[in-house]
Design the sequence.
């Protein structure tokens, strides 16, 4: 079983739709949960950061963490063509190596 | 405030050649990281540093060396490049590891080894 599973897509939805992106993980040591957005030929940029189970909202974005199921989600409301990008889930443990463990990313396309 | 910068942006090497990738940050961050990104593999950690003069191995360190002589710079070296090292390399930095740890990424270096 891989440490992080993320569907690579592409996921194509019409403008204005609600988008749901998901990752599952197997490492119980992960304590910090992140979503990064990466535009083509650019570096990843942090969208959301959480460290507990539950929901966190920031504008049109909502991050959801379910530690018991080892499942995290990112919801995008009122999706815009500018949201078209690759979305990477990322995890960090509370001890050991300080780097992030990334999913492979989901390529999202918002159709105008 | 430039954030995290990387030089060069692009480079083509022949097998066996050496090169150094430079990462610089102006945010006074303690932690710096080197990742590589390959199609279908995601981002993988090569090496990282938790402060000036320190380095540590990540998930895929073989074939690479690093140095952190100054707090603001983190160098990634390839002593003898191989085609398997063709990738996009990203540098990142963070203030500290903890609840508010956020890694800021540079724009990347696209390396092709022929």
Sequence:
């Amino acid at each position: 079983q891989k440490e992080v599973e993320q569907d690579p897509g592409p996921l194509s939805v019409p403008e204005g739709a609600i988008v749901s992106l998901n990752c599952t993980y197997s490492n119980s040591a992960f304590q910090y949960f992140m979503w990064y957005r990466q535009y083509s030929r650019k570096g990843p940029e942090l969208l959301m950061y959480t460290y507990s189970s539950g929901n966190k909202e920031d504008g049109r974005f909502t991050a959801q963490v379910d530690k018991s199921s080892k499942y995290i989600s990112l919801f995008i409301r009122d999706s815009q063509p500018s949201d078209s990008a690759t979305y990477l889930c990322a995890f960090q443990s509370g001890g050991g190596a300080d780097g992030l463990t990334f999913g492979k990313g989901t390529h999202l396309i918002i159709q105008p | 405030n430039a954030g995290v910068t990387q030089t060069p942006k692009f480079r083509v090497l022949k097998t066996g050649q050496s090169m150094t990738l430079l990462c610089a940050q102006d945010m006074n961050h303690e932690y710096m990281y080197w990742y590589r990104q390959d199609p279908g593999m995601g981002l993988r950690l090569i090496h990282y540093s938790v402060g000036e003069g320190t380095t540590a191995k990540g998930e895929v360190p073989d074939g690479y060396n690093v140095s952190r002589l100054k707090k603001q710079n983190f160098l990634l070296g390839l002593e003898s490049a191989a085609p398997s090292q063709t990738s996009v390399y990203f540098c990142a930095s963070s203030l500290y590891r903890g609840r508010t740890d956020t890694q800021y990424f540079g724009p990347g270096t696209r390396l092709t080894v022929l």
User: Anything to note?
Assistant: The radius of gyration of chain B is 13 Å.
